């Protein structure tokens, strides 16, 4: 299985004057960015906002940044990691202008081909000019052709059968197209009939042309969208080499529609620039058995802890540069989570960190493997807990939109009072009101945290307890009595809650970034939380004296926080086994949230009003629903019964945010559940989660209908047989990632192997230094010999895996990926 991991960060869009294809910023409009992946066989793009220049696709999820309002120089700073199918051709970044009342406009795009990405092994970083979008180059879909050379009365004839097409770009405002095909050869042109309102048309029409000596060598098949009033829209074309066809006599198959590149390229750099950091990695994942020696060796070292003579985890940290430490920490954590050893792994890192720390005030302040692993652990295990505690406070800040400022040098005096009686608000009044607002938010947060002991996940409580105990053993003196509390708050407050307050969108607390006023409120609230987390030390108070109005609340918060931590880590030794059993029995949701389910009607059209809002929960066992998050859940679909999860055409329900889950009922009959999401990001997240948990299901469908069966025919391809095979192929791969995704043990092991292979030279040098006596410089033992130390065994395992990769036939990726998973967001 070949996996391509694409990491990219859309940082900034720099405008060089008002873009010629973008409107000036108006009320409730702003730019955002979309990333699209093009395949060799099929083009993958999102649903269009402007059909005339940005065609959508019904194929796979894509990534979309938040909208930055009212600016020509937006900053996003959002980071993504997506897995691409082996057949991908290029990656395109579109900068769009979002409008509240009309369709979004395309400002420009940056397109990076696969070869361009491969030319930068360490990643591409810098500014890239946006180019204007040519509608004749924005095509998608495939066409099914049968081409033959047949004998004629006087000369041979070229026969072209136009059978069907799929996933064509919807050019009309109703979310479809009216496609027809134009076939041109040797000066003659023939056309098919027009199929109204379909992106999956079927023609089954045949055309013939005479083949003459010296005639044109190319047959051109063009797909067009017919329009009654305006000019027809180009949908793509296929150019066939007639000489090659003459030799083969017959060809049939699906041909990817190509753009029209006959026109001269427009000059670039007139619509702004986009700053990007993009890195592409090619990973070939071997069968599970190949990674067992590596996984078993690392697990054995974690179980031994500091008693291990080699301490491989310590060596991995020592040989990992700061640049890759977060990536390695996340991968190791996921690997040990899959083995049920996450708590032991973190405990080992705690001990290693404490053994080399002499000053209590520097504990866990560096970007060590322990700090990075704990950050990843809290995001994996504590994200739902964070949403429950922090979510209402963040929502309140966003909804109030109050002006808050404590720094006198930044205060903006404004008018207050009723109409006709305005008076300037004094600086003291602004500062006092701001302090009151922040005290209210901080108090609400601390109260919510104090009440959350029981709702904190058991594995998080156990890990914090172990951390608290290790730090207290290392610094037992009375003058260091606050050090164990600060160790816990350094992760809980400084590396988890405060970052979430500063950037709620990155922690999935909000769908959009905050505006400037809300951002300032969040920043001041995060500073206050940091002061509480630092236990109100003199050093933290001295940094910004203008935070003094919050000191009474901060001191009260320190007492609340210490009481909270005391209760949080109060787990008796006898409860450890019960805790571990509870952890093993827990089946946390992979994805949950409100969705609208279509209520089946026997007659009448399917309308958006027939959707009912329910709370859905997806686990590794079933897709369930309930009226509210806290009410009793009812199973809608057993996970093993799911056969496909796909998007639904916009025209089917008048919405582009509807998905369908195809499953079998108890009698083995295929059924379909239609679920509507509130936005395209949520739709892609649900599709991604459903495909991940069903990746190993038996009986997955190879095709499906992207429309609905309405009346007596399918709305997508107009076929009248309800049991007819689908007109489009299903997608088994996914591109989006959530922190609570199911783990892919083989992929995590492959990523660890790839990292260790990159630092193999440093590991060998370390082994040479550690070797003593007659064995010095010997290195790893040979095949079949018993390893004499863990590092030697690790080097031997790396050698075996390297040989397995060299002999693996996976060097030539398949046309369809068997499994693709994303690492992180």
From TrEMBL:
Disordered: annotated segments: 769-825
PROSITE patterns: C2, PH_DOMAIN, RAS_GTPASE_ACTIV_1, RAS_GTPASE_ACTIV_2, ZF_BTK
GO molecular function terms noted in the UniProt entry: GTPase activator activity; phospholipid binding; zinc ion binding
An individual GO BP term: intracellular signal transduction
GO CC annotation: cytosol
SMART domains membership: BTK (SM00107), C2 (SM00239), PH (SM00233), RasGAP (SM00323)
InterPro entries with a match to the protein in the record: C2_dom, C2_domain_sf, PH-like_dom_sf, PH_domain, Ras_GTPase, RASA4_PH, RasGAP_CS, RasGAP_dom
Domain Ras-GAP: 324-534
Domain PH residues, every copy: 588-695
Domain C2: 1-128, 139-255
Swiss-Prot/TrEMBL keywords: Calcium, GTPase activation, Metal-binding, Repeat, Zinc, Zinc-finger
Protein name: Ras GTPase-activating protein 4
